[in-house]
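Researcher: Structure for this, please.
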Amino acid sequence: MKFLFYLLIFYFLFRLVSRFFLYYLKSKINSSNYNFQQEKKMKKEGDVSVDKVPKKKNKSSDKLGEYVDYEEVDE
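Model: Predicted structure, token format:
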């Protein structure tokens, strides 16, 4: 009998906590979505924006090694 009582209490507490947790997650998702929409509205159509410029890599021929000339041999 105690087991059923504890199970029932756990069930109701879990439902209560999960509602608050889901409400919190929903509000976070909505606020991030709202920020994205506001950012999207600020840009005019056709405008180009660069968020990150890739680092330039210096390609040096030193790392490639030596060029070796070869000849084809007919058999």
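Researcher: Any notable elements?
Model: The helical segments are 2-42. The chain has a mean pLDDT of 78.
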